[in-house]
């Protein structure tokens, strides 16, 4: 149906249209419209309005049979784009800075390939809202996204790998991501009379430094984890002692025991700091996404597919687990599956991470990602039909 070149051009046009019109979590209405329009053109049936703005499409191959799900996330980030690209975001303060525009194009590409040459079974395509925030995966699952599904696969565009590389790992590849808020209440006062006040800025600063010792002095260094305080708000004037301070941060960990230990220590240090400095301190910890744990057999299927698409030299592994979070984890709690990394570093942007206002990727990844997802569905269905017989 497509030549290699027209397929690539089609994927690029989808990606660029999405990139110019990014939408935040659960607001992906235009994105969903673009997806359903393309699905209609491909003659693939779908259900829209799933988990508010999600779309679920399905191809029933030559025989009715087992079902494999493939997933893309759709949402953008609250960020002002600074790439200067001709197709840069037209929405102020919103940007596709994580490559989810590419993920949607890749999944539509996989749908086109599978429609063209039907697989031995059913393939379900999950266009999921709200990955960055709002646990869209959970919402999709609640609306039946995984019913009858035997395996699920997905991937993320990744600048740590070259185009033509696909990283496939077994086991844990993304961290637990929990967040916290600390509210410090001291006593405001005149900058020149500290003895009459309780300075929330000084206490907040001590606390920021102190909680770093949880990682450096309390946790086994062989267990990857990190605490980052990303927000520290306090004070209104240079000559007034601040009465209150607000800290917000994230805890990333890769095993349940370390995670528990960090939470307990954060609580202990906050309480002790309040006591030591005559302040009131309130700590709130919110549980976030679970870790992404790839099923060994699904990883084997993914490797087989990757070998077919990128060959031996393209099949790589992620050397360490990432401490990033990914709500694909929720699917993997329900069905076996594998989440991979699509190499996509763009020349000159080697040091520009995802979530940066300058983020961009090499678009050649689009057809590679699409071919991989189509292939992994095919490989898995072949295996499943064999098992059934
Ligand atoms: Ni992402």
SSE blueprint and pairings:
Blueprint (H helix, E strand, L loop, with lengths): L3 H17 L8 H14 L2 E6 L3 E7 L6 E7 L26 H17 L5 E7 L7 H7 L6 E10 L7 E2 L3 E4 L1 E10 L3 E2 L9 H19 L6 E10 L5 E2 L2 E10 L2 H22 L2 E10 L2 E3 L1 H19 E2 L11 H7 L2 E7 L21 H24 L1
Parallel strand pairs: 3-4, 3-5, 5-16, 6-15
Antiparallel strand pairs: 1-2, 2-4, 6-16, 7-14, 8-12, 8-13, 9-11, 10-12
Helix pairs in contact: 1-3, 2-3, 3-9, 5-6, 7-9
The structure holds nickel (II) ion.
The site of nickel (II) ion (NI) has 4 residues, from loops.
Care to describe what's here?
By secondary structure, this protein is of the alpha/beta class. It folds into 2 domains: 4-173 and 291-388, Aminopeptidase (3-Layer(aba) Sandwich); 176-289, Alpha-Beta Plaits. It contains 9 helices and 16 strands. It has helices at 4-20, 29-42, 100-116, 136-142, 200-218, 256-277, 296-314, 328-334, 365-388; strands at 45-50, 54-60, 67-73, 122-128, 149-158, 166-167, 171-174, 176-185, 189-190, 225-234, 240-241, 244-253, 280-289, 292-294, 315-316, 337-343. Helix 7 crosses helix 9. The longest helix has 24 residues, at 365-388. The structure holds nickel (II) ion (NI). Nickel (II) ion binds next to loops. Nickel (II) ion binds at residues 98, 100, 131, 156.
Bound molecules: nickel (II) ion
How would you describe the oligomerization state of the chains in this entry?
single chain
Shape annotation: elongated
Task: Characterize the main sheet.
Answer: 8 strands, mixed
CATH architecture of the largest domain: 3-Layer(aba) Sandwich
- The helix/strand series, from N terminus to C terminus, equals HHEEEHEHEEEEEHEEEHEEHEHEH
CATH class identity of the largest domain:
Alpha Beta
Flag low-confidence runs: none
CATH topology (level 3) name of the largest domain: Aminopeptidase
Main β-sheet, spatial strand arrangement: 1-2-4-3-5-16-6-15
Give the radius of gyration.
23 Å
Distance between the termini: 32 Å
**Structural class determined from secondary elements:** alpha/beta
């Amino acid at each position: 149906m497509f030549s290699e070149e027209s397929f690539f051009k089609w994927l690029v046009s989808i990606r660029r249209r999405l990139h110019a019109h990014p939408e935040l979590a659960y607001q992906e209405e235009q994105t969903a419209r673009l997806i359903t329009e393309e699905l209609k053109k491909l003659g693939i049936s779908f259900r829209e309005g799933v988990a508010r703005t999600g779309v679920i499409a399905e191809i029933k191959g030559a025989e009715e049979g087992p079902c494999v799900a493939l997933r893309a996330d759709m949402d953008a980030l609250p960020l002002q784009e600074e790439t200067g690209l001709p197709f840069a975001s037209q929405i102020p303060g919103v940007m596709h800075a994580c490559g989810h525009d590419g993920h949607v194009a890749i999944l539509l590409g996989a749908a086109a390939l599978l429609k063209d040459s039907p697989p031995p079974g059913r393939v379900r395509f999950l266009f999921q809202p709200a990955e960055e925030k709002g646990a869209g995966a959970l919402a999709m699952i609640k609306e039946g996204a995984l019913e009858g599904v035997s395996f699920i696969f997905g991937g993320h565009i990744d600048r740590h790998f070259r185009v033509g590389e696909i990283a496939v790992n077994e086991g844990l590849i993304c961290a637990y991501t929990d967040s916290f808020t600390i509210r410090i209440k001291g006593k405001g006062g005149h900058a020149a009379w500290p003895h009459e006040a309780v300075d929330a800025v000084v206490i907040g600063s001590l606390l920021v430094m102190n909680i770093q010792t949880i990682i450096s002095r309390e946790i086994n260094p062989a267990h990857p984890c990190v605490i980052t305080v990303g927000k520290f708000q306090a004070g209104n004037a240079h000559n007034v002692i601040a009465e209150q301070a607000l800290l917000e941060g994230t805890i990333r960990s890769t095993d349940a025991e370390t995670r528990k230990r960090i939470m307990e220590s954060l609580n202990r240090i906050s309480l002790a700091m309040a006591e030591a400095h005559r302040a009131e301190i309130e700590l709130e910890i919110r549980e976030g996404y679970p870790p992404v744990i790839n099923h060994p057999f699904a990883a084997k299927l993914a490797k087989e597919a990757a070998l077919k698409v990128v060959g031996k030299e393209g099949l790589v592994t992620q050397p360490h687990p990432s401490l990033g979070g990914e709500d694909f984890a929720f699917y993997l709690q329900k069905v076996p599956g594998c989440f991979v990394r699509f190499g996509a570093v763009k020349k000159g942007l080697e040091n520009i991470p995802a979530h940066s206002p300058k983020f961009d990727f090499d678009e050649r990844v689009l057809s590679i990602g699409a071919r991989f997802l189509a292939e992994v569905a095919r490989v898995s269905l072949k295996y499943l039909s064999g098992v059934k017989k």
